[in-house]
Structures
1.
Amino acid sequence: MLIIEQEKRDWLLEQVNSTPHPNWTEIARQYEEVFGERRHRSTIRRWVLTLMRDEHILEHYGEEGLLRDEVGTRRAKLESAHFKKRVSDLVNKQLSHENIVDVIKMSAQALPPNEIRLRETQKTTSESPIVAVAPLTDLHIGEFVDTQQMGGLNAYDFEIFTNRLFGWTNQIIDLCSLRRSFVSVPILKVPMLGDMVSGEIHEELVRTNLDNVIMTMARGAYMVSQSLMMLASQFEEVHVDSVVGNHQRLRKEIYYKDKYVGWDYLFYQWVAAFCKNQPNIKFTIPKTFYQLIDVAGFNVLIHHGDAMRGSSMQQKVHSLRQALQPQGKAFQYMFMGHYHHVEEHDIGTGTALMCGCMKGTDEYAMLQGLASRATHVLTFFHPKYGLISRDTIYLENFDDERHGFNDYVPEIWAELIE
């Protein structure tokens, strides 16, 4: 329960109830003007969510419910303090990521499994099932894109991320259902291509991110886990193959040794831990910066894409092929993120596909002339013909549609894993 003066409590609730999408930066500015106290927008947001939760508990369970909730919160606080100290100590000492992963696996309480409700139609005319591939890339969770600075072109915060993720999830289900009118789609591949959190590799991100990166990682993983659980109810199998990006770095300088050491790798471990009770979701979380995955009998190379800079796409593809082919790792297709837009390149044997960005354009991209819409792709592979279809999902269409995820995350983040 949040202890705050009644006048401030009433004022905060009035601000947030007056609009479906509160501008936390503006509310924080007005709060300072009204009460003479400077508070960060993330603090204001947490206060408001806690106040709304307290009101809900009081309305449905009375004073006794508030007391039980306070007791549970204090217990969680004691447990989470020990957990966060262990994570922070390990990161600060730059110890093995395996030690941190052990902490995550021991601490995370998995989501309850969903029943598989696969609905294949009886109108199927093809004897060969196809495989759906829905990359999830460049979420940049925790970044704040100010719509006022963008002239209304784009906005991004945690609420918008969650709305877009929920819309993406339902769009995947709907588009696969359309395909099932004429062909079976039993398997979904979800390559996670990196830059899942905003990170702290740029000074302006450290200054403007919505929250600290540890909290952002846990909250974001909780949302993505719920998305995967929804998808798992609609497919016989869901394969989640992951690679890390560049925004996941623990330090500002670029490093190549132990490239996997960072926030993306831990994010994937959180997601896997939350989903561990769902039997039809399979995770692959390697330490290498790329993966070669099998999609309907075709080899698809997935990587973030930051390694492709400095020369043309064709030159980089040729170089990768020269390195991988002697090891029996020839690939026909390539999926990558990093570039924040959707684009195809013919690489002879197939397509190199840039898979978009959940965040959409930001202040940097706008000023650099790199503006693009918030998009993701959904592709379908046939066992004989390879990549046969690509759909583009325009994520800003979901900005004003309220999501159905559990997005309440108190300051005591260990309550997530109670």
2.
Amino acid sequence: MQQIHLSGGIEFYSFRQTRFKQGALSIQFVRPMKKEEAACNALLPAVLLRGTKRDPDLRSITLRLDDLYGASVSALVRRVGDYQTTGLYCSFMEDKFALDGDEILAPMLDFVGELLLEPVTEKGAFSENYVESEKKNLISTIETEKNDKRVYASAQLMKILCRNDSFGLPRLGEKEDVEKITAQKLYDHYRKVLSESPVQVFYVGSAEPAQVAKLLTKQFEKISRAPVMLAPQTALAGGDGGHVTEKMDVAQAKLCMGFVTPITNRTADFAAMQVMNTVFGGGMTSKLFMNVREKLSLCYSVGSAYYGSKGVLTVSAGIDEGKEKIARDEIMAQLEACKNADITEEELTAAKEAVLSALRTIHDSPGAIEGYFATAALSGQGMDPQAHGAAIAAVTGADVARVARTLCYHSSYVLKK
């Protein structure tokens, strides 16, 4: 991975490879995660994709992409730690596979520049029809997530766990905030995003990094920028936890538990905590799955997730309503086993192999490469995959127990009838 500093607060990362027929490029405007703008950031790329001055509707956009050998462009909205990104992700054929004399990379970047910098406008604002249409789509997506009770319960736990931290905000914002967005409000925010936001561009493909950097500079020099640098990523903000029960007409109760640790992906014990999470509840060989679900039949589903950017670990279980207390107690008992180094060699080996296997898939596609490195850069993680893998392989049972002892039970959420 080569990093090049472009002018105006733009960081360009190039991962040069020749194994794939497709290249990938993402452009992310990095914003602080805030309730007052989260919905605007989520809506913005969808509106930009509706048309440009040259190609003012979806039909024109589709024809333009067809001319670029079936390239694709999609909205890209990430939430990584304290940051939210808004931007575009592109996939396109490498120049060397095009017909003689045809280029794809340069015209692709010209098109992306048009999407970002030359949107369809009406009276100094975005098209009202386009904004209202995409608001409906975004609200539908938000409501779909709420209708999935497992996802809903996990989101409610995060709001309780992170009540003093922006990490509890939904990636796409709240429905009521989307409803308040107007074409003028979104356009004013768009101008602010272009001017103030740090920009991270990731390219995966065979072109020379200097060539891609030159093409990018050509696009960004069209706008006046005064970037405002963001504060570094932080661990979860302190504060008291909470234990909330909500009643709803559900077929299966949901139990979610939240834990905090000072270990993040910016600290030395990150790899050990990844392995610990996998031993505890990160897969089908984990203690939670093998004991709480399989052996004791206390839940229909159970698993844990570790959010390294903030130092948060959560457990989510689908349970019978009457088994809430015993399931909660057994989950805590399995964590205690991890803290006491009650871990077999088979459990440790399986957990390490699962994490290493996930790391190996990073190089399976341009999109996977972009996803790993973009997220790592945003979160402040300094390890490349090779160093990361070596750190995972070196984790011992004693390391797992040591990092497990840093976990503190913080909050819980129960959804039941």
3.
Amino acid sequence: MIDPRINLVAKPETPADPVTPGALDGLFRSDDLRHVFPGLLVGSLLANILALALPLAILQIMDRVIVNQSMSTLGFLAMGLIAAMILEAILRSVNGIVTSWLGARFEHRATMAALKHLFRVPLRDYLRQEPSAYAEKLRAASQVASFYSGQSLLLLLDLPFAVIFLAVIYLIAGNLVFTPAILLLIFSILTLGFGRTIRDQIQARNVNDDRRSGFLFEVISGIHSVKTMMMEKLMLRRYEMLQRANAEQGQELTRSSALANSLGSFFSQIMIVSVIFAGAWKVIDGDMTPGALAACLMLSVRSLTPLRRGLSYWTRYQSFIIADRRLRDLMTLPNENQSGKEVLPPVKEGIVLRDIEVGYGNRTLFSGLNLVIPAGACIAIRGESGTGKSILLNLLSGIERPDRGEVLVDGRPLSDFAM
């Protein structure tokens, strides 16, 4: 029942820094990922090496094939280039299939493990949070799985290979490599700045989403009380305030994401213009060929692509870290180990409560409670609301554990049996 004097929008806990150091460590320590990681790494390496085929082919065509008018060489390069592009597409598709399998497997196993763990949480610890909070933590498994199954994991594998493209530019054009390298460094710094802003906005939106979902759960579960006490307008007004805050945060996040994407497009154009002008200077001085300039231009843009994708996937990465933390919070709840315990047999002698003490907060419900219930006996428990009748029944059934004392079944502690 909803008490109108209680603020249904609970104050959220101050969120921890979402950059959890163990998030990515836990990701790469996954047994499933460790089994397929060598294959993913080799596939990513080969795909990035094959990506060099196009710029190098352009270099050969412009500097040698056209000059020598060699049609046979042109046909050979065309066939090799097509084969390289097809093989690169196949390798990336296979990596995508593998990561999709990883995501589906992780979501199934993590969700089942989390729910199994939740079933074994002591009732007193379970009641410290609302059911909607546990539902959000269970849903976090699918958000973590999306990081496995999406392009985010493959992006992490592709990022280091930007160095390969810069190395090839250095081999082709020497000090021209400093032009894309400096631009990549500036873009990386700006990306980190945008990333922090987006991270804070995602964090604030998740807090507000928790408030909103908790409020909805309380209202819907207590809809009879809301209608009986004619609180519809009050509840509607509170939800409107939460929804407005959520919409404003969503607008800020969308605007930041749009600015980040615009920044990536702008730097792509800056990269093209800078490399063309710096390379043209070297071509005029005779330090490099037009074909080398075209190849360096393609390699420079290709080296920027992982960073541009990284900025786009930063939002998903932050959602992954927050979801990972929620899942970890769920799995660190106190747990009663039931393994190795025998099933409770039919009671033959009776149930005995000996020196039981139970308290909730600063209130003591039972102190020095002793009770003997013979097998087959029928008893009645009477008392006013809030005096501990439900707690007593929970003690007898094993759902609740006493702070002190013990519950005996046929002379054996009830905790010895699987409940």
